[in-house]
Write a structure and sequence with these properties.
Elements lengths: L6 E4 L2 H10 L7 E5 L4 E9 L6 E9 L9 E4 L5 H14 L3 E6 L10 H15 L6 E2 L3 E2 H6 L1 H8 L8 E5 L7 E2 H8 L4 E5 L7 H9 L3 E4 L7 H12 L2
Parallel strand pairs: 5-6, 5-11, 6-7, 6-8, 9-11, 9-12, 10-12
Antiparallel strand pairs: 1-4, 2-3, 3-4
Length: 239
């Protein structure tokens, strides 16, 4: 799609087909548009013939990121691909800055369909009428992510070094604080949260996270599935 500015723009072929064939909108039909980077616009269709639909944008503005839209979720993909897609869909609806699939020692899935997850996220953004599309990264090894997290955090939003609250949710031994209390004490600092596979992070992975500034947290007394724990984390960060 062309850059979102007031005036005439053209939708890409995929979105054009969606408007003309799925939504069956004709000339004059009203639409909401976003670039997934915070711009939200409204307008009406001016042409529906050919492969690219024309839109007259009548209103265009930039929305600020909400608190949850600065959250970086690093999570081990679930064994069932449908559950991972469900997580991406719901995290997009709630608001999340980026999602990084983690390859952990006890991971149940070593590959993901990144393009499929991006399509799921885009559909969820349109359905929820959001303006920020989470960036979905390729799968990264746990150590690679933890050691290089600074660069990923800075790509979500302009944050000062040390301003991000980093936490690792696990069920292992050792003291852990409830994530709700940690977020309350942190104020409006953005969150980076690690959520492990069904078998949890290994002791070595937990130790590495703690050595690199991640706080050990719990999500309550119940033992949650990976996708549930991840979504609870995203939801809490947005409150």
């Amino acid at each position: 799609m062309d850059p979102l500015v007031e005036g005439q723009v053209q939708l890409g072929e995929e979105e054009s087909a969606h408007c003309a064939r799925v939504l069956r909108l004709g000339v004059g039909g009203e639409v909401l548009l976003t670039d997934g980077r915070g711009t939200l616009a409204s307008g009406f269709l001016t042409a529906t013939e050919g492969k690219r639909v024309g839109v007259e944008v009548t209103r265009c503005g930039m929305l600020p990121r909400r608190q949850g839209q600065r959250t970086l979720l690093a999570v081990a993909p679930t064994k069932n691909a449908d559950r991972m897609e469900w997580l991406v869909e719901k995290a997009t609806e709630i608001g999340c800055g980026a999602i990084v699939p983690l390859l952990c020692e006890r991971s149940e899935r070593g590959r993901i369909n990144g393009e499929r997850l991006k399509r799921v996220s885009m559909a969820a953004l349109k359905q929820s009428q959001g303006a920020y599309l989470p960036h979905i990264y390729p799968m990264m090894a746990f150590q690679e992510f933890v050691m290089g997290v600074d660069a990923i955090e800075s790509s979500i939003a302009d944050v000062e070094s040390g301003a991000v609250l980093r936490a690792v949710a696990h069920c292992g031994e050792g003291p852990r604080n409830d994530l709700r209390d940690v977020l309350r004490a942190a104020g409006n600092r953005p969150l980076t949260i690690l959520v492990g596979p069904e078998g949890d992070f290994s002791a070595g992975e937990i130790a590495l996270a703690l050595e690199n500034g991640f706080l050990p947290v719990s999500l309550g007394e119940a033992r949650l599935r990976t996708e549930t724990a991840a979504l609870v984390s995203v939801a809490l960060a947005g409150t």
